[in-house]
Amino acid sequence: xxxxxxxxxxxxxxxxxxxxxxxxxxxxxxxxxxxxxxxxxxxxxxxxxxxxxxxxxxxxxxxxxxxxxxxxxxxxxxxxxxxxxxxxxxxxxxxxxxxxxxxxxxxxxxxxxxxxxxxxxxxxxxxxxxxxxxxxxxxxxxxxxxxxxxxxxxxxxxxxxxxxxxxxxxxxxxxxxxxxxxxxxxxxxxxxxxxxxxxxxxxxxxxxxxxxxxxxxxxxxxxxxxxxxxxxxxxxxxxxxxxxxxxxxxxxxxxxxxxxxxxxxxxxxxxxxxxxxxxxxxxxxxxxxxxxxxxxxxxxxxxxxxxxxxxxxxxxxxxxxxxxxxxxxxxxxxxxxxxxxxxxxxxxxxxxxxxxxxxxxxxxxxxxxxxxxxxxxxxxxxxxxxxxxxxxxxxxxxxxxxxxxxxxxxxxxxxxxxxxxxxxxxxxxxxxxxxxxxxxxxxxxxxxxxxxxxxxxxxxxxxxxxxxxxxxxxxxxxxxxxxxxxxxxxxxxxxxxxxxxxxxxxxxxxxxxxxxxxxxxxxxxxxxxxxxxxxxxxxxxxxxxxxxxxxxxxxxxxxxxxxxxxxxxxxxxxxxxxxxxxxxxxxxxxxxxxxxxxxxxxxxxxxxxxxx
Length: 612
Fold this sequence. Notes:
By secondary structure, this protein is mostly beta strands. The protein contains seven helices and 39 strands. It is elongated, with a radius of gyration of 37 Å.
């Protein structure tokens, strides 16, 4: 009964405080800490209490300048109030302040929780956000206010012995201060890049902004119209890719883009770009106007941010933060147009690419880390027969050509019957000249000297294929190229060039066309794990049935294809059950025990997290 009455005394004291009744004189205080905010950031201020007796509850009523600050929370997380187990905590937030009422022991079994006497004890925390960008440091008071908030209005107080202590009877109220600082300077940067003078490439536009979230921006960039052509302005793959409003304009000597990240904040569809450095916000795609042939030097062209030059009305480069336009620092960049090899003097050409290159013309195939791929070497010559050829290739350390895998089956060399074929491979990473591959073919070197030759052809014909291993550590998105290289020695000591033998003479100046593969994420799954829970059990057989007969959605058809026949049907359910309970056949690769790739080509899909 004593504890129940004691708790009721605290609640009664809080009610009396509202009516101005009941008090206990004491030299005690509440204090709001101070802090600072840069730009449109936020800060947390401590609210502390100095008391000479056990405190049974308290009320905080705090006001802020609503033109400068907004209260986002007033709570007890991480404070002594939370530690002792406050049982009644009521907070109210207003446009210009907040209140917090706390009773430490408000519910049965009424254990008499209190905050012990002490100095500068943390009892609450006030979270504040800046609403304005300021040009100079601006100080604003965070004040205890009595009789302003609540209905009936509340006063700041602490409760001890069932009685309230307020400012009118000795409670000290020490206000705080927040300094709103000018935001760190924002900057727009044009990232310098180089492109082949006979091609095109993207120039990345980067943003440095720690003032707050970026809600929009305008870019206006000029270039030399005699050196470059602006082909496109694109946001795909950038931090601004989901913008709700994008307006681009391309001119002979420049381009602009205006971006609004969110046109209707209430719909929550697009978030602003978080503060940060080096944020990729746009791509400007340029082509070089003049092809430069080796050995002429490369040509540098400056890209410049310009204000008031393009548009009607003319646009300035700006960044929108906190609903305000910020003029950032502007850093120019450079596009370097690189010289390209002159056109080949010969109409003979060598190519490297996947086995179907002759049909598709695509020299770059897809590959996975750790995968073994097959690449073939091709030639074309529309006018001459070839008595032989010499091919030299170089490639990076993420590819390893596998010795012993050279294959002539199905090639024109095999069909006609070459009498001399030799190759060597240099996969050494320590000899200083990278990875190299050399292939030499002579069609007729033995009696009766029937004069076999590779025929003239406009369609590339394969002369040999070889297998290469992609490094397990090859990074996703990287193109691993195999290039025709001259003056290389492979694993030997003689330096050789790419050459075709025509009429007993070496044909140089051959067109050389690289190939390779792009590393892409590989989908990994467990065979039979139809519900993708990394276990093979009865639930997977049930999931397979649900998919077939009850429209159950599944994430990975390949996993449900237990017998690996390229279809998901009743046979897969039976296969799973036989495997689990009837000593049926082992699951096909990758099996049920570890995730792996599908070694079988089929039309099934698998929407699980890829690995790379």
